[in-house]
Amino acid sequence: MKQCIVIGSGLAGLACAVILAKNGYQVTVLEQAAQMGGCLQCFARGDALFDTGMHYVGSADPGQTMHTMLRYLELENRIPLSRLDSSGYDIIALNGERYPLANGQQAFVETLAQHFPDCREQLRQYHQLVSRVASSAVMHSLDPEQDRQGNAPYRLRSVNEVIDSVVTHPVLRQVLAGIQPLYAGERDRTPFATHALISDFFNQSAFRIVGGSAVVAQALADVLAAHGGRVLLRHKVEHIECDDTRAVAVTTDDGQRFAADLVVSTIHPANTVRFVDSHLIRPSYRRRLTEARNTTSVFTVYLKFRQDKVPYMNHNLYAYQGNTTWGCEQYDETSWPKYLLYMHFCHCPDPVFAHTGQIMTYMRYDEVQRWANTPIGRRGADYEDFKRRKAERLIQALETEVPELRGNIERYYTSTPLTYVDYTGTPQGAMYGIARDVNQPLGGSIASRTRIPNLLLAGQSITAHGMLGVLAGSFLACAEVLTLPAIIELLKHQVPPAPQRGNKGASRFQGQV
Hints:
The protein has helices spanning 11-21, 65-72, 105-113, 120-135, 138-141, 144-150, 159-166, 170-176, 192-204, 214-226, 269-274, 283-290, 381-399, 417-424, 466-482, 484-492, and strands at residues 2-7, 25-30, 42-45, 48-51, 57-58, 81-83, 90-94, 97-101, 206-209, 230-232, 237-242, 247-252, 257-259, 262-265, 297-305, 316-320, 339-344, 356-363, 409-415, 455-457.
């Protein structure tokens, strides 16, 4: 049996491991941390549980894009999902108004048309364009020819350029771009294809994971084990060993050597090439990956609420402080935060009150760089004061939208870009790895295949951002060895799972946390 070594146990690493284990490989996943999951990790403080990265998912109803991939990964009875409010799963707060984004084309158009009655036809055209671009992506359509014909042109046109070409109302333009924190969007840079994939992903259907995203990591690890694979924690990779033509082994910092017929690296590509000293990696390629511009990072306040005081909010709130949803990554001390994303954690099916929640906003790495070489938990009083001041300002900003909140906060915790560096290893704590940019060749995309024929790349920086992008990229990376026609056939010809009895508002993906 061929040996496969996967570097990193985030969503991409675990998904690639399961796909390859189901197709004849003996898979070992190497994870440097004491906990698997990457951005799927949750953490607990006393009786409070918090998500760190993947906060909600979409397209998980039968027949939809995510459902197809999750079913192949054998997660249909392992991930409990709680449906977000279909009449407004996301709310965009701008200039004192709230604009709900509803599931499905008709509801999406008619709900926003209540605020923009003269734009109904433009809204319909926009939604149809989003659906067409998203549907032409190969992992959505399962048709590689359609991907080349329908999706490619919009990888080289920016989000704002395309929206502005369809929609004339200046406020509606801002509202439609209001979910851009899901992909760290940048005006005149981020491809419309990225926006379309993620917009369509959630517009089909939207859910929170009951018990948090760590449920996904554990479920994937269980499926992997059932197919003979394993995850090894506290195994920090130091070197990818190559001969004259290919990778032959991966070594870790404790001196262990893992022979490999195939290596899949799901960590940041810049970190991957640092493990390789082979002549097969050209200097120009190495520079491209190590010097690539990354997305911005994030500051998060994790809220523990007083018991039975905060009603569960079954939607996500994107609140903007000015009259635009663009440029929030560009701020100074007085203008920060320009936006915030407020969400609740779903601790059980159909919760009445929220136990915990979180507030997120952009933060540049340079704000915390002075503490970069300090150890976790011992960065000093000035760092703790910095986090406290930022947390208070972020909570104050949220009070504009939720004025009764502060009195119902029992305690809070924080994370900064340094936290993301410490726990994910991503350069400068980048939220989504390497940025997509229409001004770069191929829109800034990175191919899964490298010049080392049996070294593949997957993860946030490859293909597309977010859960959908990472999972789709994982299947496409595996297609480099299994072939794309074979992957498409595997996804097309699955045996549907038996119907599940679920709680009201829950999806078919039901199971025990």
